Amino acid sequence: MLSQDLIAGAIAAANYAGLSPRAIYHLVEQGRLPVIRKGKRLYFRKSELEAAFRSEAAPAAEQKPKPNRFSTFDVM
Question: What residues does the Helix-turn-helix domain cover (predicted)?
């Protein structure tokens, strides 16, 4: 069961997440993406990738759009 949840390598994780491998490496370097390091190899859990991206998308979706600087009263 655990082996079905593991993704081996940043390229495979990038394909799974729909990102570039460099974006995956960048997120790992920042500590924003959970990773298992074994030697030089990186392993990712699908469930943790999904949770990481779900938590990043939620605050953006909850933010209210900024009001337009031109209101209906500014029209000439």
Answer: 13-55
> Letter for the amino acid at 70?
F
**Of the candidates 34, 58, 57, which has an alpha carbon nearest to the alpha carbon of residue 47?**
34
- Kindly state the tokens that stand for 63: 């933010």
Tell me the C-alpha distance between 76 and 69, whole Å: 14
Q: What does residue 8 show for φ and ψ, rounded to 5 degrees?
A: -95, 115
| Long-range contacts (CB closer than 8 Å, 24 or more residues apart) made by 68-72 | none
For the full predicted model, state whether its pTM sits above 0.70.
no
Residues 41 and 11 sit within 8 Å (Cβ to Cβ): no
